[in-house]
Specification:
- The chain is mostly helical.
- The protein has one domain.
- The protein is 88% helix and 0% strand.
- The chain has five helices and no strands.
- Helix 2 crosses helix 5.
- The chain is elongated and about 60 Å long.
- It starts with a helix and ends with a helix.
Length: 159
């Protein structure tokens, strides 16, 4: 069984990736569906406000902090190569770093940036909104599953 500071790192990894999975689950299951029900100008305005708020320390500490923690867990695992949990620790780190953090950077952020450049009440924003909701949500599902799977992998490493 994993012990000491390594145990604490892994428990924090479970908590961080699990919290992020929960945020992404909320967006995938009801937030985006609710925003899609609004008229496009209201949906665009609301999502733009959410995107600005998401960049504040409360969420960024959990989201980016979990990425840093996953990277630390991966490096420590490579250096120490523990007798137990190695595969689970490396898998959990990879799932979060690539499937959650990486997907955010290459799929969700570019869509958010495009949305931020649009004025909510314009025809251009109204035309982009359904595409944005569909594509952003698909990639959010990927992030949700990857973050949840990372948390599960870390839990399995602890057993």
């Amino acid at each position: 069984m994993i012990e000491g500071p390594y145990f604490a790192l892994t428990v924090l990894g479970v908590l961080g990736t699990g919290l992020v999975a929960g945020v992404f689950c909320a967006f995938s299951t009801f937030v985006m569906k609710g925003l899609a029900e609004l008229p496009p100008s209201q949906g665009v305005a609301a999502m733009k406000a959410i995107n600005v708020t998401a960049l504040r320390p409360a969420f960024m500490l959990v989201f980016a902090g979990s990425a840093v923690l996953c990277a630390v867990i991966a490096v420590v695992t490579f250096v120490l190569w523990p007798d137990e949990g190695t595969v689970e620790l490396l898998l959990g780190s990879a799932l979060y770093l690539f499937g959650s953090f990486g997907v955010t950077m290459v799929a969700n952020v570019p869509r958010n940036d495009t949305l931020m450049r649009l004025d909510a009440g314009t025809a251009e924003a109204a035309a982009y909104w359904p595409e944005y909701v569909r594509e952003w949500t698909v990639w959010n599902h990927v992030r949700m599953v990857a973050s949840g799977a990372a948390a599960l992998a870390y839990v399995l490493a602890l057993t």
